[in-house]
Amino acid sequence: MLLQSFQLEVVNNHCMPGAQSVNCIARLDQDVGGAIPYLNAVIEGDLFTPDPPSITFRVEGRLISVQARMITVNAVRDEAQGRKIVEWIRREINAAWENRDNIAPRHTQAERPQVVEILKRLPRTNCKKCSAPTCMVFATWMIQGAKDETQCPELSEKGQKALKNYLANFKMAD
Predict the structure, then answer these.
(1) Does the reported pTM lie above 0.90?
(2) Each residue's pLDDT expressed in tens, for the chain with a length of 174 residues
(3) What DSSP state is assigned to residue 30?
(4) Is 57 helix (H, G, I), strand (E, B) or coil?
(5) CA distance linking residue 86 with residue 103, whole number of Å
(6) How far apart are CA 78 and CA 21, in angstroms?
(7) First to last CA, the chain
């Protein structure tokens, strides 16, 4: 097991002291820098930096960043939720490291669908029937995994198929 322990710190957002969420910083007791390219191959980060190694990705609207000696998670409800997310990442790091002989390390960021390309395939009526204020917001939610093509009431069956075909070109977060 590569990452065995960490110290969790909960930080309030100094720019928005009244915010209803906090950020978590996990200070790692072990260096996980060597595992980051393998983790990047498994998770396919939104941003990968080779030197020093780091990966940043989104899960359920939260930004999560993994560096050699630190994991940061933004917009968590409380320490318990932050700890749960960091524990999940710890398991992912350890699994990627333990399985590294079967994983090709990825030293680049994953290609992601583009909001404008999704928007081109939506009806662009801004009808709000999907609960998004605009089709642009709906497209952004799709990239984040919060919505899919079936949740646009104005999109025809043909349009759904075209959007699904476009998105099939990308590995989307589950």
Answers:
(1) no
(2) 999 999 999 988 666 556 678 899 999 999 999 999 999 999 877 789 988 999 998 888 789 999 999 999 998 999 999 999 999 999 999 999 999 999 999 988 777 788 999 999 999 999 999 999 999 999 998 887 788 999 999 999 999 999 998 888 776 544
(3) S
(4) strand
(5) 22
(6) 7
(7) 25
